[in-house]
Amino acid sequence: MTDAPRGWAVTPSTEIPTVAFGNQKGGTGKTTATINSAAALATRDHEVLAIDLDPQADLTKGLGLGPGDDTDPSNPKNALPNTLVTDDANLLDVLVDNPRTHDTNLSEIVIRADEYDHLNFDLVPSHKDMGLARDWMDDANARLSLKVALEELVEDGYDYDFILIDCPPDLSVLTDAAFIASQNALLAAQTQATSRDALDDLWDQLESIEDNQQIEIGIVGLLANMYRDDGQSRKFETVFTESFASMAPIFKLPMRVAIQRAWDNGRDIFEWEDANDQQVERDVFGDIAETMERAFDRAPVEA
Ligand SMILES: Nc1ncnc2c1ncn2[C@@H]1O[C@H](COP(=O)(O)OP(=O)(O)O)[C@@H](O)[C@H]1O
Ligand SMILES: [Mg+2]
């Protein structure tokens, strides 16, 4: 793994601090980290937009705006609409030149936090049509589509303190579009052997995007997720530290059952209360939020 020095944080063309949560491996905690970092920033009074770029739509579902839960009538998701199946314009229409909807702007599909009690930040939901993205986004311009969409969002008067993008578990055109638009990555990995190769491949991908697009991509941090206090976790914590600690902070998040429960109930970890104490995970995401504030020089908003 290369240890070339990298930018700490890069301001993208919109001037809005923007971070893509990536790793082509599935199940590493990208979606968990996107939702809860967005919520942590929001609890610090920042205006935040989260974008669900994954056709699997776990972020949208994890905020309760996907299908309900027919196994549990008391699940609060059942009271919320399923935004993944609407006939209205959706994220795919924004990213591709769709003759059906012509020029759909991101501003038309943003769900505002004040539309729902449980939402702490604005959301661009995924959609079932996003499964077609990889087939339709087949030219060089497609890689720039999210960057252009975010620039248009700012032109439309939307002014966020932070924008967070949840990437799909692959190195597809969608992930490239996220890194090009954000110019900053937060990498989520589990402290286990297979993470090392995955991070090497991801690193190569980031460098190739930097070369092709002539941009810099900052590494805001590495989330060492599902950390267990055992030999395997400690070994890969050392590997991560040797490779990353000189360029970006490493955040350790242990296995916490409340994280899964919160997602199942369509709530972020700051909204969700259950019998377990949620302080450990709230503190980790609070640290990530504070690091982003420092990296981008955005002080917490005074209450
Ligand atoms: N620290 C953790 N403790 C317990 N469960 C976790 C933790 N991080 C993630 N999970 C759970 O693991 C699964 C995969 O996480 P997710 O964030 O969806 O990964 P990705 O987006 O990288 O595929 C989800 O069910 C999530 O709730
Ligand atoms: Mg995910």
Model description:
- With 303 residues, the chain is α/β, with parallel strands linked by helices.
- The protein has a single domain (18-295), classed as P-loop containing nucleotide triphosphate hydrolases (Rossmann fold), CATH 3.40.50.
- The chain has 11 helices and 7 strands.
- It has helices at 30-43, 58-62, 91-95, 133-136, 140-143, 145-155, 173-182, 194-213, 231-244, 257-264, 279-295; strands at residues 18-22, 48-52, 122-124, 162-166, 184-190, 218-227, 250-254.
- It has a 7-stranded parallel beta sheet with strand order 3-2-4-1-5-6-7, with helices on both faces.
- Helix 6 crosses helix 7.
- It is globular and about 55 Å long.
- Residues 1-7 have low confidence and may be disordered.
- Bound molecules: adenosine-5'-diphosphate and magnesium ion.
Topology:
Elements lengths: L17 E5 L7 H14 L4 E5 L5 H5 L28 H5 L26 E3 L8 H4 L3 H4 L1 H11 L6 E5 L6 H10 L1 E7 L3 H20 L4 E10 L3 H14 L5 E5 L2 H8 L14 H17 L8
Parallel strand pairs: 1-4, 1-5, 2-3, 2-4, 5-6, 6-7
Bound molecules: adenosine-5'-diphosphate (ADP) and magnesium ion (MG).
